[in-house]
Amino acid sequence: MAVFHCDICKRETQHVPIYVALTITGVSRSTIYYWMERGWVHWREVPSSRRYICTLSLSRPGGGPDLRATWIGIRSQECSGSVRRCSVQ
How many other C-beta atoms are found inside a 10 Å radius of the C-beta of residue 5? Predict the structure, then answer.
């Protein structure tokens, strides 16, 4: 776990590697990448090319629907907009 500034949340937040996000959410790696592509979770890439996901966005991705609804197969609404990626400082 690491603490980075998330440009979307506008504050310092805990970020976890993808393998930890898998454990937290209980979903597959491809699902995490799907969420990343759509900007449903905030993430950043560090110089080593590893990607870390903002833990705040795992519970409420990008201001969109609560991911817990997605986990049980209920789609409450569709997220829109470009990919929200936290930039590296």
Answer: 16
